[in-house]
Amino acid sequence: MQTVLFHDTIFGPIHSRRLGTSLGVNLTPNDGKICSFDCLYCEAGFNAQGKGTTGFPQREAVRDSLERKLTSMKEAGEHLDVITFSGNGEPTLHPDFAGVIDDTIDLRNRYFPDVKISVLSNATRAMRPEVAAALRRVDNNILKLDSAVTPTMRKLDRPGAADYTSEKAIDTIAAFGDRCIVQTMLTRGEHDGETVDNTTPAEIDALINAYRTIKPREVMLYSLDRPSPERSLCKISREELEHVADRIRNEAGIKVQVV
């Protein structure tokens, strides 16, 4: 069953609860999903739906489509806060991700110089020099860390690489320090008869220790906003999220945005 969210390379603008008025860039196929994670909560569905037929969009096509959209928005006097790379999978898997980022910075500077550029990434390719350098060039380098406990991370995020661990993720993200924002999805439920819960005291303790190691500019803490592919997962209340956020602020001294 196909559940991909975006059927165009450039989509929106939409209202992002994290970022404001956001023009989206989807660097994965518009009729399938390609991701190095297969998260139980992914709004674009599971990877099993397939990669589709369109493949990664060509760098030139991304640039042309983005320029047309920015031109029309500029001429119409429309408001824009951010250009956001997300879409139907992991944007850094695009074979010319760094080049696309360079093009986007150039177009942003020409049409909307005050607009921020954000990348939502699961960090699985952030150790590659060309990807890391590109992520350092954007305004909001937003990297995922859902659990600092490897068994929980592997249940919830289901990375494709058998050797991918929370420790590896933390080391990779920590290399960016305050040049990154860490995003953490909190949820609990079951999958294939096993409990999945990254909200326990031990999980939160481990996350706080990880944030201390990483020293990010900010932590974005959130829970489900739409139905997830794994229907047993539940949305964590705002009250509980705020309680966790207060612990992070007090114990790690890091800014937290609850979204």
In short:
This protein is an alpha/beta fold. Helix content is 34%, strand content 21%. It has seven helices and eleven strands.
Please give a structural write-up:
- There is one protein chain.
- The protein is an alpha/beta fold and 259 residues long.
- 34% of the residues lie in helices and 21% in strands.
- The protein is built from 7 helices and 11 strands.
- It has helices at 59-76, 97-111, 129-137, 150-157, 166-174, 201-214, 238-252; strands at residues 10-16, 20-26, 82-86, 116-121, 140-144, 181-185, 187-191, 194-197, 218-222, 234-235, 256-258.
- Helix 1 (59-76) packs parallel to helix 2, helix 2 packs parallel to helix 3 and helix 6 (201-214) packs across helix 7.
Primary descriptors:
alpha/beta, 259 residues, 7 helices, eight-stranded mixed sheet, three-stranded antiparallel sheet, globular, single chain
